[in-house]
Amino acid sequence: xxxxxxxxxxxxxxxxxxxxxxxxxxxxxxxxxxxxxxxxxxxxxxxxxxxxxxxxxxxxxxxxxxxxxxxxxxxxxxxxxxxxxxxxxxxxxxxxxxxxxxxxxxxxxxxxxxxxxxxxxxxxxxxxxxxxxxxxxxxxxxxxxxxxxxxxxxxxxxxxxxxxxxxxxxxxxxxxxxxxxxxxxxxxxxxxxxxxxxxxxxxxxxxxxxxxxxxxxxxxxxxxxxxxxxxxxxxxxxxxxxxxxxxxxxxxxxxxxxxxxxxxxxxxxxxxxxxxxxxxxxxxxxxxxxxxxxxxxxxxxxxxxxxxxxxxxxxxxxxxxxxxxxxxxxxxxxxxxxxxxxxxxxxxxxxxxxxxxxxxxxxxxxxxxxxxxxxxxxxxxxxxxxxxxxxxxxxxxxxxxxxxxxxxxxxxxxxxxxxxxxxxxxxxxxxxxxxxxxxxxxxxxxxxxxxx
Length: 452
Ligand SMILES: Cc1ncc(COP(=O)(O)O)c(C=O)c1O
Known about the structure:
Blueprint: E1 2-3, H1 11-19, H2 57-63, H3 66-70, H4 75-86, E2 107-111, E3 117-121, H5 123-128, H6 138-152, E4 159-164, H7 167-178, E5 184-188, H8 193-199, E6 205-209, E7 211-212, E8 215-216, H9 218-229, E9 242-245, E10 270-275, E11 287-292, H10 293-306, H11 312-323, H12 325-350, E12 357-358, E13 367-372, H13 379-388, E14 394-395, E15 409-413, H14 419-451
Parallel strand pairs: 1-5, 5-6, 9-10
Antiparallel strand pairs: 2-3, 4-11, 7-8, 10-11, 12-13, 13-15, 14-15
Helix pairs in contact: 6-11, 7-8, 12-14
């Protein structure tokens, strides 16, 4: 299982290397007339179905955990699903739905920044506050399917979307579905901290792959996979699924969108997790997973057991946003522009510490990763000195599975700090690093003296 924590340019190269894709059959031919905003596929080099067959139901069942296999349909949820599917007024004595007359709200009117509003009253309001099918609001599912087609143009295999409570929820569900205690899991050496929190109780064998500014280093990944393959029967394909956790997909600043794993997935190995947290609202808790259809039911049963469904009102709001594509594009573009401007501002402020740390200007996402010079381990610098002096940042430790290993990295976020405070924050950071470098030198001298 691969969990790329950041967008990586080497995606295409990576998949080709691992799976030795050979041309056989062109991908589905569709007409894309909409403007090509946030195109996450490579038009000039489309993926082709290769030498291996796409995974079958039987293949997927090999990936499933015992826990996931034991999940069964909740019949009341199935009835809700059927009621929506039939789509006409039914005389229902079945579902335990509350009577809408008891809801204390009479109207919700949400004004949009770009003009227009979402007005919910009467039937539309009661529908927004009622139970809905576990997979998601049917109208929203339709929009999400279209959006994925538009953004990723995935090779024609059976895929479905399911609404989640955001990317973190999707990660949790996937791990529950796919990871047995002790299973090997491949992750970026520095990964989103939420994946580690989910994985830790499973005691997985973590195979952390080092990365550069483009993501995982393909040669190292390939070596690890080949090493693993030796354990398998000769001729068996490498046995893995890819979880593409990508909440920063809309935040790509160099105008050169990166091909997603989904856009190249001719085998049905990719589960893609999307989220609106970073560009719409993190508090709405809204995201979606795009999965090979044979896995859909497992996730649905999980959600049935866990939360019945993601908030209906949230889904109605999202549907409203997605159904006006022009407005959506304009929101996403302005979110991207705002973050790009903030990224550039922090880059400028950081120039004053170029002798103290090194970094690469991020092409995407919300973070700078600084490698601090002359400090053995940044932990106490972040938790003691910096906090004491009123500066918050995250040490690299937070993103490694083994948080006790020393790290030279700190992560700085440019998303929210007032622009007028950026310079001050960096000046403070400079003082902190200088002091920490002195302490490190003193410690080294002491160590040398005691070794003599
Ligand atoms: C890489 C990554 N994945 C997932 C998440 C979780 O996001 P969500 O709010 O969609 O659960 C985050 C949040 O910071 C993240 O950075």
